Amino acid sequence: MIKNLLHRFALRDKLLALIVPLLVLTLWQSVLSLHLFSDLILIPPLTLVSTFLELVGSGDLANNILASLQRVMVGFLLGGSLGFIFGVVTGLSPFMNRVLTPLIKALQQVPEFAWMPLIILLFGIDELAKVVFVSIGAFYPMLFNTYLGVSGVPKKYQELAWVFDYRRFRYLTKVIIPSALPSIITGIRLSLGLSWMFVVGAELFGADSGLGYMMTWGRQLFQIDIVMVGLIVIGAIGFAMNSLLLIIEKRLLSWRVSFDGRTL
Amino acid sequence: MTVEKGTLEIKNLSKSFIVDNNPLLVLNNINIKFPACAFISIIGGSGCGKTTLLRIMLGLDTSYDGEALMDGERIVGPGSNRGIVFQDHRLLPWLTVGENVAFGLDRLNRKEKKLLVDENLKLVGLSGFESAYPSQLSGGMAQRVAIARALANKPEILLLDEPLGALDALTRIHMQKELERLWLLEKITMIMVTHDVDEAIYLSDKVVIMSSRPGVIKKIIDIPSSRSRDRASSEFMQIKAEILKEFHLGTEYPFAYAI
């Protein structure tokens, strides 16, 4: 009975989420029928569907998605692990925190794209440059959230660990990391989200594959429909990754009664 | 010289905290001996240093003047011969009940662990709750798990820091009976900090009364009567009056007669 009710609410939430996209589509279609813009600039929704199917059929879309995902994974693993390690170190040691944090905070103020010229000079314009660019984006959210979780382990758990003689590695793996896990998972989610945004940015600068490349190519050929399919696919994949991580988060943190996996 | 296991002795112990660059004396010249297998309560108002004294006995606080001796040896840190139950249960929320009880048994193998977990959960009446999470337990149940966790390590002394302070009145009375049962069963020394006079009289062989600023031992009262004490008996009331008098809360001149 209660479960049924909950299901019905969940269904209602999903229907509510569809209202705005449907409104946008309606608006889009009605502006089209006024013929204010050329059909080459404001693409009819149906054209997008056929372009999408074409790109799927030729395999172009899948190849470009794979290329982007690959860069994201490598960059995320690289930047995320570094962020995790720095977060644990600065969270555990006030000394290391004082030594490292000022520099990290200063570097964080540099806009991501301002790194591009330096990265190109150092690493060329090949895969490595793109991966480095992505990893810079992945680094900061992982670092700050890990730091928050690790430095925020309640004193009462530290005392408990002390009473039961948990030290060093055992203390880190059995007390610190589990206690910081909610924060760390938030870090992973934000980190992966930024990686996905930055990979497209990196591919806009110069690439021969990837969703960013596909969009640049579409713009150069004046095929706005390809650009728009790219936009929608990027949004959809980002949304799917976030949702997947929320599900994993909910599983891992099932011990938290108040946790319903609905944080932003 | 051999000392019976489970003996704790405090000699000429003083302890100061630094507050705004000035030393503040919280414990002044404490002398007390906790004999093996006794149940002793330390009672006093807030700020009398009773929790500080317990933390020193546990080994969480090691900067003090004087001596704190466990089985005749100076306490230099926490040790498995002393167990602790805090006021908040302090179960780790990401571990199940069973894993929490096994928290201090990390060095044993899986089989030995399981045996001790089962044994101690049964002891506190929570068999079958191994795979529940702390957030699914009531306050009383969580505190039972905390007691099982402390006992699983087979301590010689169990330190209890207001263990029932966060429970409602009825659960509390029930848990006092449970503590008595466990003490009779385990035959170990138990030292409990509390501010509940009834609880102290009901459970203890001796009640140590402390007064505040600085914390000193004001009086030690022996409770002679046998176990399963009747809270409504005249003997119980007399001891209660004697203790309350020390806090200037006596009823010698009830309000109605004073007018």
What CATH architecture of chain A do you see?
Answer: Orthogonal Bundle
Largest interface: A-B, 19 and 22 residues
Name the helicity range of chain B.
25-40%
How many domains comprise the coordinates of chain A? 1
Average residue-wise pLDDT of chain B: 85
Q: How many E-type strands of chain A?
A: 0
Number of helices of chain A: 10
Main β-sheet description of chain B: 6 strands, mixed
C-alpha termini separation of chain A = 29 Å
Radius of gyration of chain B: 19 Å
Q: How much helicity do the residues of chain A have?
A: over 70%
Describe the secondary structure blueprint for this structure.
The complex is a heterodimer of chains A (264) and B (259).
Chain A: H1 2-33, H2 45-58, H3 60-92, H4 94-108, H5 116-123, H6 127-151, H7 155-163, H8 168-205, H9 211-220, H10 224-252
Helix pairs in contact in A: 2-10, 3-4, 3-6, 3-8, 3-9, 5-6, 6-8, 8-9, 8-10, 9-10
Chain B: E1 8-19, E2 22-34, E3 39-43, H1 50-58, E4 65-70, E5 73-74, E6 82-85, H2 97-101, H3 110-123, H4 139-152, E7 157-161, H5 169-186, E8 189-194, H6 197-203, E9 206-211, E10 216-222, H7 234-246, H8 255-258
Parallel strand pairs in B: 3-8, 3-9, 6-7, 7-8
Antiparallel strand pairs in B: 1-2, 1-4, 4-5, 9-10
Helix pairs in contact in B: 3-4, 6-7
Question: What does the model show?
Answer:
The complex is a heterodimer of chains A (264) and B (259). Chain A has a single domain, classed as MetI-like (MetI-like fold). Chain A has helices spanning 2-33, 45-58, 60-92, 94-108, 116-123, 127-151, 155-163, 168-205, 211-220, 224-252. Chain A is mainly alpha-helical and 264 residues long. Chain B is α/β, with parallel strands linked by helices and 259 residues long. Chain B folds into two domains: 8-81 and 156-258, P-loop containing nucleotide triphosphate hydrolases (Rossmann fold, 3-Layer(aba) Sandwich); 91-154, no CATH class. Chain B has eight helices and ten strands. Chain B has helices at residues 50-58, 97-101, 110-123, 139-152, 169-186, 197-203, 234-246, 255-258, and strands spanning 8-19, 22-34, 39-43, 65-70, 73-74, 82-85, 157-161, 189-194, 206-211, 216-222. In chain B, the strands form two sheets. Chain B has a six-stranded mixed beta sheet with strand order 6-7-8-3-9-10, sandwiched between helices. A four-stranded antiparallel beta sheet of chain B has the order 2-1-4-5. The longest helix of chain B is centred in the last third of the chain and has 18 residues, at 169-186. At the A-B interface, helix 7 and helix 8 of A face loops of B.
